[in-house]
Amino acid sequence: MQVMTRILHVLDHSLPMQSGYTFRTRAVLKAQAAMGYEVRGVTGLRHTAEGPVAEEADGLLFHRTAGAASGPAGLREWREIAIFAKGIEKVVREWRPDVIHAHSPALCGQAALRVARRHDIPLVYEIRAFWEDAAVGNGTGSEGSLKYRLTRKLESHVVSRADAVVTICEGLKADLVGRGTAPERITVMPNGVDLTLFGEPASRDPELARSLGFEVGGAPCPVIGFIGSFYDYEGIDVLIEAMAHLAQRRSDARLLLVGGGPCEAALRAQAAASPAAEAIRFVGRVPHHEVERYYALADIMAYPRKRSRLTDLVTPLKPLEAMAQGKLVAASDVGGHRELVTHGRTGTLFTPDDPLACANALAGLLEDRAHWPAYRKAGRDHVESRHDWAVNAARYQDVYQMLALLKPENRGTVAA
Fold first, then answer.
1. pLDDT in tens, 31-55
2. Contacts of range 210-218, beta carbons closer than 8 Å, 24 or more positions apart
3. Model pLDDT for residues 302-332, shown as the tens digit of each residue
4. Beta strand 280-284 with 254-260: parallel, antiparallel or unpaired?
5. Other C-beta atoms lying within 10 Å of the C-beta of residue 214
6. Whole-number Cα distances in Å, 166 to 53, 56, 190, 398
7. Residues 225, 258: contact at Cβ < 8 Å?
């Protein structure tokens, strides 16, 4: 049996750019390196940070693909795939990996598929989200459009040709099975947390708290926090509206919003017009190394995602980070959250798209202070037992070992 030791990860973008995508990539590659694998990454044209053609970031080596794709929609993406495939092939010829491990979107998968078949290398395709649904969620696409259908068709093509398929949650797996993919071909690799980065939670900074108005009469206020990107599907507008209801029961409660995104201006305007305007604080984007200072101010982290295909199918990372930080979690009752949060044990779930339900859930947690230690312990235990990268990454070993047993003639044909 061939021993798979060199893994080339094909990526949309990577560190030093910062996003949930790059942080998961970092965790995966670090965990695999700790298991004894040699790992590298190669990024496509959508990695827009300036840097050398081979760049080390946080101890990991990433190769960059140079070039630009132009033309009308559809043709432009096809040209982008061709350029990216050349970039992948360059690394393959120089480094000779044992496995090509491509990560969504499907543009990465299709480019990797061309090179994998040309060089007879096993291909793993890992789906973190269906990007056509993500485009709908962030307002750059519409469900059922031509682009939506073409993206979905391309993804299905890559899935059918890959030697192994990985998804981050059961919702995505179930959707692929519904499209005709055999369930035994799909491995679920849950979103996880690198617990080496979450030791003792940072201490509350009294000066920072006072500067934000999080004290009344010298006593700390209860703080609800949201740290992340301001997209419509995140439901931050629901949370802002909920604060007006919550203020009727807890006038001392405050809302901390950290981050930015396309909805920021509208959210700031909504907050300014709210009866609870004085209780809402926007701090904008903060450097990644300062995020823990803001986590430390919050008692409850709120995740009011709206119901959609995206939020029902995909599990987010942020609730797991909050549990690792020892925070209480209040989340909307959508499919992605239900895979992570057990109502009444590791957090509380409330009806999505309902500001009053959100307010009642937050008020219930604030009024149940006696059970906070139990919530915190259950959340941390859940992350340690089911979402620690040091443990979960071992599942990749099973996938790679299966590929080592796969005979060349059983792999797909060269993709167009």
1. 999 999 999 999 999 999 999 999 9
2. 212/254, 212/256, 212/281, 212/283, 212/297, 213/254, 213/278, 213/281, 214/254, 214/256, 214/281, 214/297, 216/252
3. 999 999 999 999 999 999 999 999 999 999 9
4. parallel
5. 21
6. 28, 26, 10, 12
7. yes
**b/e sequence 4-40, b meaning 16+ C-beta within 10 Å:** beebbbbbbbbbebeebbbbbbbbbbbbbeeeebebb
> How many helices (H) and strands (E) in the chain?
17, 16
- The CA distances from residue 146 to 73, 122, 138, in Å, are 10, 31, 17
3-state secondary structure of 370: helix
Q: Where are the beta strands (DSSP E) in 293-404?
A: 300-303, 328-332, 348-350
**pTM (whole model) above 0.90:** no
165, β-bridge pairs: 125, 186
What pLDDT digit, counting tens, does each position of 107-150 carry? Answer: 999 999 999 999 999 999 999 988 888 888 877 788 888 888 88
Q: Please report the pLDDT score of residue 416 as a whole number.
A: 31
Domains defined along the chain, listed by start: 6-192+389-410 (3.40.50.2000), 195-386 (3.40.50.2000)
